[in-house]
Amino acid sequence: MLGDLENQLIALIKASPLGLRLKTVDSLPDTPDKDVIKRWGVDAPAAYVIAMDGSISQAVATPQFVVVMVARNARGHQAARHGDGKTVGLYEMLDAGIAELHGGQTDAASWQVSRYQFMQEDALREQGLHVALVQIQADVDPPQKDAVNLGEFLEFHADIDIDPDATQEDRERWLNENHDAPAPDLHSHINPQEGI
User: Fold this and answer.
1) Which of 12, 37, 47, 112 has the smallest CB count inside 10 Å?
2) CB under 8 Å to 140, separation ≥6 — which residues?
3) Which one, of 15, 136, 131, 5, lies nearest residue 80 by Cα?
4) Are strands 186-190 and 129-137 parallel, antiparallel or unpaired?
5) Is 157 helix (H, G, I), strand (E, B) or coil?
6) Distance from C-alpha of 76 to C-alpha of 83, rounded to nearest angstrom
7) How far is CA 33 from the centre of its chain?
8) H-only helix segments in the chain
9) Cα angle value 104/132/36 (rounded, 5°)
10) Separation between Cα atoms, residue 3 and residue 13, nearest integer Å
11) Cβ(191)–Cβ(155) under 8 Å?
């Protein structure tokens, strides 16, 4: 359900007049916090979609998503917020995004904008980025057992840094070690079809 809804929202934004003015419309990248601002700066103007906490009541699921809108303009903060006739500004992105998403229709849902919020972090301003979040939601049927296909369980992978049977003394010693090394001490791969 959530993956389909995310893809449908991305397609809705891409096909809109706003989407034609953006450099990037995608799901929010899985980028470490220290790199996300750099990535946003390269991709701007951009809109990213990410699922948030939802709710289920009786027979109705209410998934919520956030659309992260990112604007940047070399002409300065006012052009980044208002636009300059060439590059879309954050306020224009918000107006167009809310107009498209509030009452927007996708294959599985009719969407409503519930709020928007401006991000005020110093790290964003230092990079000349102006960012706003638009929260949207829809009432849909919850997933049904017969519609969920997880596929075959093909492989189990685990990274182990300490023996599961280690003594308490060994665990204490391990906790006090330096764990900056990127690789775990042991890898385990199990293919259930072949047995252990």
Assistant:
1) 112
2) 1, 5, 60, 61, 62, 63, 108, 109
3) 131
4) unpaired
5) strand
6) 10
7) 12
8) 2-15, 33-43, 77-82, 90-101, 122-126, 168-175
9) 110
10) 16
11) yes
Residue closest to 64 by CA, chosen among 13, 158, 139: 139
Domain chopping of the chain, boundaries: 2-143, 156-190
Determine if residue 68 is left, alpha or beta; phi over 0 gives left, psi from -120 to 50 gives alpha, anything else beta: beta
**Torsion sign across C-alpha atoms 14, 19, 20, 26:** negative
* 3-class secondary structure, 60: strand
Q: Which tokens hold the place of 184?
A: 């775990």
**Which amino acid does the sequence have at 35?**
D
Q: Which fold has domain 2-143?
A: STM4215-like (3.30.2000)
Give the sign of the dihedral formed by CA 165, CA 169, CA 172, CA 176: negative
Q: Which residues contact 36 (CB under 8 A, 6 or more apart)?
A: 29
Tens-binned pLDDT, residue by residue, of the chain (196 aa)? 788 889 999 999 999 999 998 998 998 877 656 677 777 777 889 999 999 988 888 888 888 999 999 988 766 666 667 767 777 778 999 999 999 999 988 888 889 999 999 988 888 888 888 899 999 998 887 766 666 566 666 677 676 677 777 888 887 887 777 766 656 666 666 666 665 5
**Stated length of the chain:** 196
